[in-house]
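Final report, closing paragraph on structural work. Over the funding period we assembled a curated collection of sequence-structure pairs, and we close with a single example.
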Amino acid sequence: MAYGTVPLVDHHCHGVLRGDPDLAAFESFLTEAPGPAAAGTSFLDTQLGFAVRRWCPPLLGLDPHCPPELYLARRRELGAREATRLLLRGSGIGAYLMDTGIPGELTGPAELAGLSGAPVHEVVRLERLAELTADRTRDADTFLAELAAGVRAAAATAVGFKSVAAYRYGLDLPPEPPELADVREAAAKWLKKRPVDDRVKDPVLLRHLLWSAVATRLPLQIHTGFGDPDLRLHRCDPLLLTDFIRATRRPGFPLILLHGYPYHRNAAYLAHVYPHVYADMGLTLSHTGARAAAVLAEMLELTPFGKLLFSTDAYGLPELYVVGARLFTEGLDELLGQWTASGAWSPADADRVAALLAGGNARRVYGLE
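Its predicted structure, as stored:
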């Protein structure tokens, strides 16, 4: 079976740019670094940069690995909308779950659906929901009441929630729900600081958001592992969530650990031993490029095959959807080909597991059937 033909469900992604980026802006989406590349270097000279140059030019009528300047000229010739449409529709992704919590000039769910020709479901970012609520409230009691109403409203339409507590504080949070008096006090302090300190970072409020999502029983995505320098990587090891995971064991509540790298084996262990924990690789495969199959193999050492989900974590560039999808399917082809050839797996089991990883698990976990 050609596993690249299995329809993919991208269970964690973001919007794309509406306009044409220049070379510097294009490069900025190929890294988690906050600034330009060091003098004499380029973010195109990375595993992700090479993967973009391999997989994306043919979708726009160019040869693989063509010079970046030629590729961007072709992009401008087509126009942002048409280039995005061609890239998304050539990605092999059949459904998207979009985290809508990143502000900026990015496409929303309806726009992405129109460009891709595929359904797009919303995942609500808890911290962004809290910040938007704080924008229109003055006192802690009103804030908490409106936040609770916002979570309920989101739960009625979204397929899940997402937390970036790893960025805002770290995953070494006390595991139990905070007392209401503590939440009210933390909210009052934060509201008093705004708009100078407009992002929610207080650990009490972050815990309150997590437990508010748990109460809905919708899937909860939690960022773990590497990202931009807003986080401290040693505080993003998913093992730090062990007590929270134990405290949230309940039927019907899925907890999805995103990305994980370089702690992806730790995420695999947690998915292995806790029934309600799931894992994905996300942007890890894109950034590891030609090594993606090796990293995917490490994730499949312990993760039960019904508990690993595919995602791209694509943001800004439609190219990142293409690369995330191709590296996943190519890596899966390579691994399953080896394992069936050696007799370790039967071809029938390989086909079945490929369908689970590509989309079956996501459809089950998020209720997309």
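Residues 37 and 218 are 40 Å apart (CA to CA). The chain is about 50% helix and 10% strand. We thank the funder for supporting this effort.
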